[in-house]
């Protein structure tokens, strides 16, 4: 049974990586060329133009000049959105006060997991697990774990109640939404319980990761911690298969579309996408595309004048 527990851990990590990669790859392969939003300011314009909502297109003969993109601008905007949920705060503050604690809990536990992983690697490389530095890291992780689990429990519960009581959200809420949130709440409850009844949550987590790395299938010393890990294994595999996959998909489905303003003449990739799209068949019969109900390609549509007199058979 102990070996099976560790096997589930390996499968969960591999499953998350494979499912996330597959989802991103399939999305990029299937998504068409985005229709530009034409919304400015766009962060990668740089601080000078971003300050007043400008664009490189305001420059004379812009298409003849090299284009300069500020990746720092994109990164800064991403960090503000991810760390502060700025758009939600601006447009829906009543939702923000509920979803922000939930996301903070996720960030804390994700960051804590990375630190524990690095601590486990440092220990395996010879760092004294009982030295002053490791004790300091342990205190930090114990504090982060406490705050993170409380945020999960409080934020997740608040989001469930919000969906139940808000008429607008209730219309679009499915059983899956409640299930996803409640699983996170359960994960937080088990983590809080494990934190409360064990001398050091950090020691539990670091020992487990060391065992994973070294293939040492030692039994877990805490039942509550083991139960939390099982729920965590499930979440790793479950998240990529649900709408909560926006954890890693949001850039592709939102930011890349909103900020994707690369002109066609700058991108051979976009030119090829347009050439491929023009070959697709169109069977619409709408007047604005001079449709006659017969199959035609978009090239036919683009080269047909819908106002021209129709030829008589």
Name the overall outline: elongated
Structural class: mainly alpha
- Give the assembly state of these chains: single chain
Number of domains: 2
- State the helix count: 13
Helix % is 55-70%
The biggest sheet, with number of strands, parallel, antiparallel or mixed sense and barrel status, is: 2 strands, antiparallel
Can you list the strand order of the major beta sheet? 1-2
CATH architecture of the largest domain: Up-down Bundle
> Which segments are poorly predicted (pLDDT under 50) over 5 or more consecutive residues?
none
Structure description:
The chain has 313 residues and is mostly helical. The chain folds into two domains: 2-31 and 68-259, Transmembrane di-heme cytochromes, Chain C (Fumarate Reductase Cytochrome B subunit); 278-313, no CATH class. The protein is 66% helix and 1% strand. It has 13 helices and two strands. The chain has a two-stranded antiparallel sheet. Helix 1 (2-30) runs parallel beside helix 10 and helix 5 runs antiparallel to helix 6. The protein is elongated and about 85 Å long. The N and C termini lie far apart (78 Å). The mean pLDDT is 89.
